Amino acid sequence: MQPYISLDTLKLISERPVNEIFNLFVVVAKAVFLIAPITMVIIQLVKIPLLRFYHEKKLKAWLSGYSYPILPTTYLSVPAFNKRRKDRYGVESMRNKEELLPTLIRLSTAGNTYALFQLSIEQLCGQLLAAVQTVFNDPQNHRGLLIALASPQKEDSLNSDIDVLTPSGDSNKTSKNKKNKQQEQVYLAARSRVHSAIQRNIDSLQISGAIEWRAWLKFVSALVSAVIAIILINVSGVSDQLFLKFMFVIVVAPVAGYVASVLRDIIAVVEKLRN
Predict the structure, then answer these.
(1) Is 224 contained in some domain?
(2) Is the pTM of this model over 0.85?
């Protein structure tokens, strides 16, 4: 009997972990590149109805004076969820229950909800800016919408300027009968400030809406990838150990979801170049 380990045995022992890690990497890579395209196709199929649903919820919350981020972490984190619920009810209780969204849709796309909500967030905000001009042409009949557009988070911040744009009763008659140059300058200054506030708020809606939508797409992509990975590992029968299955899903799902989002972005760029 030899009192030492042979050179061949040492080589085998040293190479075995490397080979196992490499084989594991190959298995994970194959799974990722199998799952990612399937995930991307599924997301593309359900993206339009999800986009309409998201834009409707986002716009309703924005008009009601509530702009807390609608992110996946908001619902997964208990403190964030409680804060969102408290802030939402606090703001909505101060806001009138007037139905502003149908009016905004009518001014933006002649009441066509489908046409407005299926747009990208950039195009949707462009339609909102087109509706703003109609609101300024007749501010007296759109006072509630003007307040919501100008200051969704701080309703009282521009009340004085909005009062100038929408005079009531006798003040309106006086402004028509005795309108001088000074009053006109006050009116134009108030209109400029309100218009600037509306532009800033719509820009904020566009930025936050784009960020939140991308976050939701990545989150849904990871979930879909996890479901596909679970089905794949159960069908293939690679291992009967629950821990290995769990680790496989934990590793593959986020990577496949990210790759699916990259593939989706590439397809979006190709479609833009084609158009």
Answers:
(1) no
(2) no
pLDDT tens digits for 34-69? Answer: 899 999 999 888 888 888 988 988 888 788 776 666
CA–CA gap between residue 248 and residue 226 (Å, rounded): 9
Residue 91 lies in a domain: yes
Provide the residue range defining the domain that includes 81. Answer: 49-60+70-210
If one counts the domains in the chain, the total is 1
124 pLDDT more than 90: yes
Is 81:74 a contact under the CB 8 Å cutoff? Answer: yes
**Residue tagged 């108030």 (tokens):** 190
In a domain, 81, yes or no: yes
Structure tokens at 161: 């300027």
Residue 193 lies in a domain: yes
Task: Give residue-wise pLDDT tens across range 89-103.
Answer: 444 444 444 578 888
Buried b / exposed e along 13-30 (16+ C-beta atoms within 10 A): eeeeeeeeeeeeeeeeee
